Amino acid sequence: MGAFRYDNPFMAIMVRIANLMILSFFWLLCSLPVLTILPASAALYHTMIRVVHGQGSGVAKDYFHAFAGSLKKGLPLSLAVLAAGGLLGYSLYIGKQMMERSLAGTFYFVFGLGLAFVLIAGVLHLVPALATFEGSVGMYLRLGLYFSGKNPLKTLLRLLLLAVTALMADFYPIALLILPGVYMDLISPGLKKMTDRFMADQGLAPAADSAPAPEAPPEADAPAMPNIELDRALRGTEENRDE
Questions:
Q1: For residues 123 and 197, what is the distance between their CA atoms, to the nearest angstrom?
Q2: Helix (H/G/I), strand (E/B), else coil: 100
Q3: Which long-range contacts (CB under 8 A, 24 or more apart) does 70-73 make?
Q4: What is the DSSP letter of 223?
Q5: Which residue from 44, 50, 82, 91 has the highest number of Cβ atoms inside 10 Å of its Cβ?
Q6: Contact 79/35 with Cβ under 8 angstroms?
Q7: In whole angstroms, what is the distance from residue 119 CA to residue 112 CA?
Q8: Residue 173 carries which DSSP code?
Q9: d(CA 70, CA 80)
Q10: 199 DSSP β-pair partners
């Protein structure tokens, strides 16, 4: 019957919803240790770009291949982010106590909220950086801050959408079975354009564009991660902005 043809628009929508639910489950599963939340998010972004948007070799295969590839560099990055978040959270708690006693405490608390905004925005933009580039922890942190500050309005919209998604998950926990995938589906096209523009500006090419070694397995090009001197590239970008 026509309604159940794979190329039918209704079936295409149902397949997309199923993929979003599968990816959301994989993300929840891989995020359980907490320290793996950044590699899990990078794998979610990578698979969303490739499979859900029409490429890749399969949801499960691409997701876990990308997750395994992001673990080594994502774990120390997650540790650094969690340490910064814990310190900032404690500072905000102290600031809230001080706010009730003096005006200086109010300024301290507001300043802490500003830092929290910068941290969350930077962490959100660490995800495409981790999924796309090779570099050190310091370079990823700089990339996250650079991307988050590149277009403040779009960054604000992504954070507002993240807040709405978190509120929905708080009111309807069962929605977590699809919300992570839906959120990444909504923001991944913009993040992909952002990293592509950065690579074009710096004259960088994905690793997949280079000539592959004959013995390389077919899935080796799944996470397209250019081996680049990010520190040099970022310095050049900042110098151009100053001019």
A1: 20
A2: coil
A3: 70/38, 70/39, 70/42, 70/43, 70/46, 70/130, 70/131, 70/223, 71/36, 71/39, 73/130, 73/134, 73/135, 73/137, 73/140
A4: S
A5: 44
A6: yes
A7: 10
A8: G
A9: 15
A10: none
Helix (H, G, I), strand (E, B) or coil at 227: strand
> Looking up tokens 């690793």, which residue turns up?
207
Assess contact for 226 and 133: CB atoms under 8 A: yes
In tens, the pLDDT along 57-87 reads 688 889 999 999 999 889 999 999 999 999 9
Q: Using one digit for the tens of pLDDT, what is the confidence trace for 165-223?
A: 999 999 999 999 999 999 999 999 999 999 999 988 887 755 443 333 334 344 444 34
User: For the whole model, what pTM was predicted?
Assistant: 0.79
| Residue 8, helix vs strand vs coil | coil
**CA 56 → CA 51, 87, 189, 219, distances in Å?**
5, 39, 16, 9
